[in-house]
């Protein structure tokens, strides 16, 4: 379990992380989302003890990481795909990291097989693609068979098979009772992998809730309908307390689809289309972080 | 649901960290290229010097060759370990290292010990190469071992090992290969020139700086090695240990307080 409490980090006058508190529970994949520069990586680095917090604490399995006797068994981190010496072979890299925690060489072979890079174990990773480097980073994180995993953008550069493998790996590790914190810009990936999401924007935690709750909380419940007499039906629905808006038919908020159908039947208007659009994680995320994006592109038309 | 805690690891003990750092050192091609280069210098010096020996080479001749090699070897080896240690940061490896060993002080100690062992082994290899080749070239009843060469069997590994550890600690402190090598060159060359030309009072301090102390240790068993103002061999060893350990302690403290890996 990871417990982050009132964690803050300032660089001069810039507040990179501002009083962040959240918990990553065992048995759950927690998605860590936020725009570029929101403070995701800084938070993960502070959890791993790579950066010193200005204030607050980050505990892994009840203690700061530096106080654990065997850190690799407690937490495996993959924070950057290029966290190795390019001139040292993949096997030697893993052997050196394993030796630092008294992990056997047999485990090195196991993680090489598990991550699919056994065939290039003797090669130096300076020639590795981004995907291969990701796999080496993941192999390093898995060396100690850890209770907690921190994965920062692990699917970047991976092919379709690799992405699916990471998804299944994260889910299977959580199913074994491990706590998994996974940051990604790919909403579809997080949606398919995570059970819980923590959203950060401009250093502040904007949301910390189960994925389904996060997505449904941002749902305005609008129902899109079309009928044989849109004008009359709109009047009926408005009289029943709904908000209506023209949308190539009618967009109705404030009434469930079943009640809309009942009112239409009572008014003698036949419905030709009823659509309850489902909100995705991406919709919910964009709605929440709209005002928190630090680096925003300008649409092409408005540049002219 | 309870968390899974692995039993696959024995923990990040100092011994484990030293083993890890030794694997890092020996798994780099540059380590072996550097060692071959050092042995090449040793072979060249021995071959060139042996042509000037009339008859049979004596232990003091062998010792002289070894000391000539170490004039170059000391700087090459310290620069090598400084660059290799600083590369932890330039390559991003430090992120992995500190995720595996978050206790910075223990890691610095492990790294310094591993580099010291590496330097000592390189020194022994050079001594063995010079003695072996020298004996081979002057095989006509040559006796390579005497008090001078016996002394170098422990003096050379000790001096080179401590200096390698010192340079590794210096590299952790500055986290930059160029700065670390620059600091070593300043200690070896620039301070000597400055003190000789501008600050003559500094000449009294020079014998207590790391390279001069290493030179004192290396020459400890040589006849007429005592230099005016230089500490004795015993004190030189103690001071060299103090330089290596002191720099490592400062590096560990600074490393714990500093962001970034």
Automatic annotation (TrEMBL), chain A:
Entry keyword annotation includes Nucleotide-binding: yes
Gene Ontology molecular function terms on file: ATP binding
Name recorded for this polypeptide: ATP-binding cassette domain-containing protein
InterPro entries (UniProt xref): AAA+_ATPase (IPR003593), ABC_transporter-like_ATP-bd (IPR003439), ABC_transporter-like_CS (IPR017871), P-loop_NTPase (IPR027417)
Keywords recorded for this protein, A-Z: ATP-binding, Nucleotide-binding, Transport
Residue span(s) of domain ABC transporter: 2-227
Pfam families documented for this protein: ABC_tran
Automatic annotation (TrEMBL), chain B:
Keywords, ordered alphabetically: Membrane, Transmembrane, Transmembrane helix
Domain of life of the organism encoding this protein: Bacteria
Transmembrane segments: 32-50, 62-83, 112-133, 153-174, 181-203, 233-254
Name of the protein in its database record: ABC-2 type transport system permease protein
């Amino acid at each position: 379990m990871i417990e982050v409490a009132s964690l803050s980090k300032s660089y001069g006058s810039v507040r990179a992380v501002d009083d962040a508190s959240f918990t990553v529970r065992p048995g759950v994949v927690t998605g860590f989302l936020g725009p570029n520069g929101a403070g995701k990586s800084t938070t993960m680095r502070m959890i791993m003890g790579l950066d010193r917090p200005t204030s607050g604490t980050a505990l892994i399995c009840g203690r700061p990481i530096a106080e654990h006797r065997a850190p690799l068994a407690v937490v495996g981190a993959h924070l950057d795909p290029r966290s190795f010496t390019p001139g040292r072979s993949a096997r030697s890299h893993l052997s050196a990291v394993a030796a630092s925690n008294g992990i056997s060489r047999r485990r090195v072979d196991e993680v090489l097989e598990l991550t699919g890079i056994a065939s290039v174990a003797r090669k130096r990773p300076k020639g590795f693609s981004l995907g291969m480097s990701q796999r080496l980073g993941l192999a390093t994180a898995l060396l100690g068979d850890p209770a907690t995993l921190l994965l920062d953008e692990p699917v970047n550069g991976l092919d379709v098979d690799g992405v699916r493998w990471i998804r299944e790996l994260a889910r299977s590790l959580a199913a074994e009772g491990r706590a998994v914190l996974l940051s990604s810009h790919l909403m579809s990936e997080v949606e398919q992998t995570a059970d819980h999401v923590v959203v950060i924007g401009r250093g502040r935690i904007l949301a910390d809730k189960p994925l389904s709750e996060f997505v449904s909380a941002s749902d305005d419940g609008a129902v899109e309908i079309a009928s044989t007499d849109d004008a009359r039906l709109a009047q009926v629905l408005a009289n029943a307390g709904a908000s209506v808006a023209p949308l190539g038919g009618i967009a109705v908020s404030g009434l469930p689809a079943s009640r809309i159908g009942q009112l239409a039947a009572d008014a003698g208007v036949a419905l030709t289309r009823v659509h309850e659009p489902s909100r995705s994680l991406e919709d919910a995320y964009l709605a929440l972080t709209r005002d928190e994006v630090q680096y925003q592109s300008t649409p092409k038309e408005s540049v002219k | 649901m309870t968390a899974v805690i692995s039993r696959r690891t024995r923990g990040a003990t100092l011994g484990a960290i030293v083993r890890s750092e030794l694997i890092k050192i020996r798994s780099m091609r540059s380590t072996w290229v550097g060692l071959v280069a050092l042995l090449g210098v040793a072979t060249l010096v021995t071959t060139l010097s042996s042509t000037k020996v009339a008859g049979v080479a004596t232990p003091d001749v062998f010792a002289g060759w070894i000391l000539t090699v170490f004039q170059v070897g000391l700087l090459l080896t310290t620069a090598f370990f400084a660059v290799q240690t600083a590369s932890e940061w330039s390559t991003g490896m430090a992120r992995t290292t500190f995720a595996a060993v978050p206790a910075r002080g223990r890691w610095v100690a492990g790294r310094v010990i591993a580099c010291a062992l590496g330097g000592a082994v390189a020194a022994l290899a050079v001594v063995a190469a010079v003695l072996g080749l020298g004996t081979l070239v002057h095989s006509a009843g040559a006796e390579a071992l005497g008090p001078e060469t016996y002394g170098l069997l422990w003096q050379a590994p000790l001096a080179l090992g401590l200096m390698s550890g010192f340079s590794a600690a210096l590299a952790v402190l500055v986290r930059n290969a160029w700065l670390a090598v620059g600091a070593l060159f300043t200690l070896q060359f620039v301070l000597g020139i400055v003190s000789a030309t501008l600050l003559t009072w500094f000449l009294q301090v020079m014998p207590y700086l790391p390279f001069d102390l290493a030179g004192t240790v290396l020459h400890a068993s040589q006849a007429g090695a005592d230099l005016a103002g230089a500490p004795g061999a015993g004190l030189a060893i103690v001071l060299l240990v103090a330089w290596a350990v002191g720099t490592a302690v400062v590096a560990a403290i600074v490393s714990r307080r500093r962001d970034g890996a």
